[in-house]
Amino acid sequence: MSIADDMMRTETVIALGGVDFIADVSGALFEPETRMLIVADCHFEKGSALTRRGHVLPPFDTRDTLIRLEALTRRFRPRAIVSLGDGFHDRAAALRLSDDDVARLSALGRVADLIWIAGNHDPEPVTNLPGTSVMELALGGIMLRHEPGGAGDYEIAGHLHPAAKIAGRGRALRRRCFVSDGRRCILPAFGAYTGGLNILDDAFTPYLTRETWRIHALGRDRLYGIAPALLLGD
Questions:
Q1: What was the pLDDT predicted at 169?
Q2: Most buried among 4, 40, 63, 124, by the most CB within 10 A?
Q3: Cα dihedral: 65, 225, 219, 180 (round 10)
């Protein structure tokens, strides 16, 4: 993969509103002072939803996502874990969780406060799992919400599933990514079965200033800093 700014590391810092967040290669964001771990678009039980519609998929997406979240919890030891909306793929997804996955979420709730921000896929409060359901959350002067574009000077959001596409070694490479412009940061989707929307898509135009873009693409075990000039459309 082409590297624009010689950055190849498992973590990097994204500055927003005077706060330094740690962006992790997993796609999660961590705020060290409050010890808040933030993930976007887990889409628990997307696999079971698609299977019900006739798409036969291995039913392990929720388990895979939870295992990665557990690993992050052991590493960062957060006081709070925030889901930036679409934690669940649909209104009934929480009821389709296996007993083992409910136990895993309950265990996470015993070591950190679980905060479920409402998304367009899961707009109603979670009632059968530990944690607190909110529409949005303030972290100092920074607003955490599902869809970008709300009021407030600084914002962390999900929803758009950003992905960067660049040329590398004779072929195009496409990776989920963090994208920020100094005022807003949009996180990549964390869920196992979630895809990505090219950040050159017009859907990003109202929310981010391209002249100040900072892009950090997720590799297998590294984050890659990407210059906007290297981006390709789909």
A1: 74
A2: 40
A3: 20
Token code pair at residue 62: 């929720």
**Contacts (Cβ under 8 Å, ≥6 apart) of 22:** 11, 12, 13, 14, 29, 30, 31, 32
140 Ramachandran zone, left/alpha/beta (phi>0; psi -120 to 50): left
Mean pLDDT of 167-192: 92
**In the predicted structure, residue 139 carries a pLDDT above the cut 80:** yes
In order of their start, the domains of the chain are 8-230 (3.60.21)
Cα(7)–Cα(203) distance, integer angstroms: 27
d(CA 9, CA 30): 15
Residue 57 is predicted with a pLDDT of: 67
Cα dihedral 234, 230, 164, 136 sign: negative
Which amino acid makes up residue 146? H
The alpha carbon of residue 61 and the mean position of all alpha carbons in its chain are separated, in whole angstroms, by 15
